[in-house]
Amino acid sequence: MAALIGRRLFTLARAQNDVADRIAKISSTIRIIPDFPKPGIMFHDITTLLLDHAAFKDTIDLFVERYKDMNISVVAGVEARGFIFGPPIALAIGAKFVPLRKPNRLPGEVISEEYSLEYGTDIMEMHLGAVQAGDQALVVDDLIATGGTLCAAMKLLERVGAHVVECACVVELVELKGRDRLGEKPLFVLVSST
Amino acid sequence: MSACHSDDPRIHAIKSKIRVVPNFPKPGIMFQDVTTLLLDPKAFKDTMDLFVERYKNKNISVVAGIEARGFIFGPPIALAIGAKFVPLRKPRKLPGEVISEEYTLEYGRDCLEMHIGAVEPNERALVVDDLIATGGTLCAAISLLERAGAEVVECACLIELPDLKGRERLKGKPLYVLVESH
Fold it and tell me: What are the protein's UniProt keywords (chain B) (predicted)?
């Protein structure tokens, strides 16, 4: 009996180490670019992660492992880097993919949600009819900073009656407290950057 | 080359999922909307499978996707065939050092950019976008990759508008599409 418990704990520890190893590898491929788009900002560039096939695959696998049994029916990706990570997750878990876009990009009838930026506001749009009441939704973007964009995304989905299960990002900029801005909605990230 | 002339049953289902929106972005244009295809998980998967089946044994080391709809279709192909993914973007979106290629639009000009160092000489590249119209954007993409020393093996799109003759503007590179729209 003790041997059985010991083996199971060993297997669990090994699985957690495997996740930790993959996350460390993913984190190491993300490039920090100072002063972009303006002085003082340390930009987290995921394009270098995309150049490492194993790291990119691990990124998607970690999200898929988490979401495949959660009955997610729609993955909503925020333009434009959410379009890179969202569709592979949607394909793997059998969900539809819905792009959330800047104004005037989607050709059909849309609903719009305005949200604040540091200076001024922006607008995010979703096609009418893409998401139905009762859909279980996952919101995907490459990074969460202040959380303004993700909040707007969640509002769009909730306005049509979907239930937002979680928000998923590769990187979280912890100091900007975006997680708090999401309120009760859970946030799952792979890399926390301080 | 167009897969739409083949007997593959997946093609007809894919074509039926694409929504045509009249007069977008301006009067007279019949816009081919792929977002409705993305709402059908089987049709979306079939779309990706058709491309992956074609490219998986061609030693492609880089898939370049054109912002923004090329970002939806390019990465799943790259992941499935073991290639890296390189986003080709509008100006000032990429944070690192870039090379830029200007190209003409119906009225005016636009610019496509790629990170320096993303692609190395002699890499074999695939360019992906949702649709080819006049071919101007794809031509700019080919130029960027060739300037970095890569060999563009093929361009791949879901949809071709053959009447606009974009196929002839690809610097001699082959084009593979799933459906045509006249």
Answer: Cytoplasm, Glycosyltransferase, Purine salvage, Transferase
Chain B residues with beta carbon closer than 8 angstroms to that of A79 = 68
Measured distance CA(B137)–CA(B127) in Å, rounded: 11
Flag if A47 and B115 touch (Cβ within 8 Å).
yes
Interchain contact B135–A (C-beta under 8 A)? no
B69 a catalytic residue: yes
- Distance (Å) from the C-alpha of residue B1 to the closest C-alpha of chain A? 26
Report how many Cβ contacts below 8 Å link chain A to chain B: 106
- How large a percentage of chain B has pLDDT more than 90? 93
**Which residue in the block uniquely carries the two structure tokens 């979680």?**
A166
Of B82, B94, B118, the CB nearest to A53: B82
ipTM of the complex: 0.97
Rounded to an integer, what distance in angstroms lies between the CA atom of residue A137 and that of residue B160? 32
Minimal Cβ distance to B33: which of A43, A79, A107: A107
Whole-model pTM: value is: 0.96
DSSP, res A122: E
Amino acid at A28: S
Six token digits for residue A187: 């946030």
| DSSP-derived secondary structure for A1-30 | -HHHHHHHHHHHHHHHHHHHHHHHHHHHHP
Residue B127 tokens read as: 């360019």
Find where tokens 């060739």 sit: B146
User: Are B78 and A99 in contact (CB < 8 Å)?
Assistant: no
Taking the C-alpha atoms of residue B117 and residue B166, their distance in angstroms, rounded to an integer, is: 29
> Whole-number mean pLDDT of chain B?
96
Phi, psi of A86 (to 5 degrees): -65, -55
Closest-CA residue of A relative to B68 is: A80
Radius of gyration of chain B (CA): 16
DSSP A132-187: -TT-EEEEEEEEESSSHHHHHHHHHHHHTT-EEEEEEEEEEEGGG-HHHHTTTS-E
